[in-house]
Every structure is written in C-alpha cells, then in structure tokens.
TrEMBL record, chains A, B:
GO terms for biological process: glutathione metabolic process. It comes from the Bacteria. CDD domains: GST_C_Sigma_like. Residues 98-228 form the GST C-terminal domain. One of its GO terms (molecular function) is glutathione transferase activity. Keywords: Transferase. This is Glutathione S-transferase. PROSITE patterns: GST_CTER, GST_NTER. Coiled coil: none annotated. Pfam families: GST_C_3 (PF14497). It comes from Qipengyuania vulgaris. Gene3D superfamilies: 1.20.1050.10, Glutaredoxin (3.40.30.10). Residues 5-92 form the GST N-terminal domain.
Length: 243, 243
C-alpha cells in the first residue's frame, strides 16, 4: 500500500486544472496518488457521487485533494495550492508577499478560464464545432487584447522582487502556474506566442527557472505528464491562432 | 477627515465585483471610504496608473481595498473577503469550516464569471449588440444547465450545518455573496428564477437571513447601494431570459 499522504482526484485524460496542482507537487516533493489515473474516469464520477450522498461538504468539481490520514478534502486549484503551501511551510515567511502570491494565483485562475472561453465561448456543454464562429472572435480578442493585458501585468509583478521567481529567489505556486500557462499558450497559440514572447522576458525566465527546479524535469519526462490535447483547457485549433 | 480604516476602489457606476465586498462590510460594521464614488471613475483610473508607475505590487483590476494606516492593498473579491474575515476575527473559529467557506466563495466567483459570459460570451471589449446571437445561446445554457448545477450544489452545501447560513448560525462572506447572487439573478433572469426558486429553499432562506442582518437593510435602502443596471455583471435583457 502506498504511503503517499494525499489522493488527487482529477479527470485522467486531460491536464486541465489538475495540472496546476501536479506541477506544484513535483518540485515540492509532495507524494500523492493520482486516483483517477490509477483507476479511471468512472472511479472519479463514483467518488464524487459518494461524497454527495454522504451529505457532508463536497467539492463542486475536480480537482480535489484528499489528506488520506484525516479525510480532509479541499477543492479549487488556487485554494489547494494555498493550502499546500501553508501545510508544507513553503511560503516566503512574509505575510504580505504570501498574500500577493495568492492574489496573483487568482488572476491566473481568471486567465485560465478565459483560455477555455476561446474554444467554448457559448457553453461547455456544446461541441466546439457548434460554436466555431463565436470561438474565432473570442480567440482573436483573447490573442490581441487579453494575452498582452495579463502578460504585461504579470511581467510587472515579476519585477517587484529581483530573481527569477514571483517572490524573488524562492519559487512558489505562482511560478509553477506561470510555467503551465506559458506552456499551454505555446501549445494553443504557437504563432501568437512566437510573436510576443520577447516582450515578456521575466515571465519566460520564470518558465525556464521552473523547468530547472528539482523534480520538474523528471515529472515532465514521465508518463505522469499527460500531453496537451484537444479535450483540455489549452487546445490547438489552427483557425484560432494567428500573430 | 474620515477615520474609516479602509479605502475601497471600484467603478462608481456599477455594483459589479465590488458589491460582494460592500455587502460583507455592511453587516460586519466595517467602515470604509468608497473612493471612486466620492470622486469619480477618472480618479480610479489615475490611482491604478500611479500604482503601476510606482513599480510595487499592484492589483490587476478593481475592486481593491487599501488599509489606510499601512497602505497595504489587496485585490480579487474572494481574497479581500477572506482577508477581512481573518483581520476582523469574523471566522467560525473552526479551520476546516473556514476553508470550506473560502472554497464556496471561489465557486461563487466562478458562477459570477459565467453570468458575465451570458451577455459577453465572445469578448468584454465588444458591444452586447455585436454578440447577441452567441449571448442568446450562452444564456440559454446558463439558465437551463448552469444555474441548476450550481444552485443544487450550493443548496447541498447549506445543508451541512443546521441554520440559515452556510456555516450554520453564524453568517459569513459566503452568505452575503449568495444574497448578491440571488438578487442579481432575480434581476437578470426574473422568469427563470421565479420558475426554480422553490427548489432551493435553503438558499432563499440564506438570502432572507442576510437581508435581516443588522446593517444590511440600511445599506440596501441607502444611496450607497447602486441599482442594478445594464453596465454591470447582472444585466436584464429580456431576450436572454426565459423559464
């Protein structure tokens, strides 16, 4: 039996929002069982249903993390990251800086939701093919207006402390999330990213510094890293990209 | 000079995300200056620009709250609410419950973003009239699928503790936010809400209990409560409503 202290529950076939949690646990050296990947998607659906029937407080949606000893369960990617940071004493030791990092994480949450909106502007429940025209316009606005607005903001935020990370020399959940955001946008919008990356050198440095953290390269090279695909948040549809 | 300990900065002509903060401060009895309402929208734009030029950590967008004594500034509605709860000792005293409340607040953040998406599915920067057809489909999916999914979830969450509030007998930021969510959806989708409210009695009880908290009625009756309008998050477009 595994002695991993945590169970992570997330859809087994996509990176999705679960990946922000996985990418944090890799350099933190936090061990976990990835339950729906060990089992299957049906097991996740059943776990969600059981929690509902039990009548206690339950997550709205995956990802959620279970502390196996206590059964304590926490959901919402930004909330999980904040909680793990506190639990494993991975904060900066500076209250104000830690609060700023949470604030940045919530702004990353916002842009990630907008990324999903580029291919599903009308409804998650409709097929992409049934909202392609709206998606083309949504993606254009996202590429031309939203990426520069968010990235300029993040770039300035990285300028507050000297060093490759948002808090300076010490990495945090913000950095692993920025890594995933950059990787995801490179996958989804390669033309656009190639055109603008040079304007956001602090973000690209942070991305590279995360790639070099202990535990990250081996995670990325392993089968645990699900490849990007067209069922996740970051999807590559050629017609949605452009310089 | 006002001795209010906080400055709130938010757009002066809409409730928007700032209202979730205002509605928390009313029953908490926390005094604040509502800066852009005392001054104007231009003052908010200038304050944002000054913060950018100063080079320190700055908010991505309003609302943000400034502790006047220290200058400490915090943004993201859910983050502001969590911080104020901690700062003013308004939590339940039960760590696990407080964490669940934050998780619920982040799920409220998600549905509020989806509400905005019903009238601006393609881009915030485009006029409603230029995305009316996509909006009609987005609103239909939101009314028929998303409201019941979120509301069923929140209704179950309210069932965990006996009492009108999410944590039982003691109100929290979740309850004032549920109040605003119900009020906003009643304004935006009156036909739909009339048809389904009876299925969510715990939520409606929570809404009523918040209306009866000290400080709330006087706030709602005052000029400080901006009326709902078609520039905010909750907009009433007759063509987007339906049973």
């Amino acid at each position: 039996m595994s002695s991993a202290p945590y169970d992570l529950w997330y859809w087994p076939s996509i990176q999705g929002r679960g990946e922000f949690v996985r990418l944090f646990m890799a350099p933190a050296g936090i061990d976990y069982r990835d339950r729906a990947r060990d089992l299957d998607a049906q097991a996740l659906v059943e776990d969600m249903e059981e929690r509902e029937e039990r009548g206690g407080f339950a997550p709205y949606a995956p990802p959620y993390l279970v502390e196996r000893d206590s059964g304590f369960t926490i959901a919402q990617a930004a909330h999980i990251l904040t909680w793990l940071t506190d639990r494993h004493d991975l904060g900066t030791g500076e209250m104000e800086t830690d609060l700023h990092l949470i604030q940045l994480q919530l702004t990353i949450t916002d842009i990630v939701a907008e990324v999903h909106g580029t291919h599903h502007p009308m409804a998650s429940s409709l097929y992409y093919d049934d909202q392609k025209e709206a998606a083309a316009q949504a993606a254009k606005a996202f590429r031309e207006e939203r990426i520069p607005k968010y990235f300029s903001y993040f770039e300035r935020a990285y300028g507050v402390h000297p060093g490759p990370f948002a808090a300076g020399g010490k990495w945090s959940h913000v950095d692993t999330s920025i890594f995933q955001l950059v990787e995801g946008l490179r996958y989804a919008f390669p033309q656009r990213m190639a055109a603008i990356e040079g304007d956001y050198l602090a973000l690209m440095d942070a991305r590279d510094a995360v790639a070099n953290l202990g535990g990250v390269a081996s995670y990325l090279d392993s089968e645990r890293r699900i490849p990007f695909n067209e069922d996740g948040i970051f999807r590559h549809y050629e017609e949605l990209d452009g310089q």
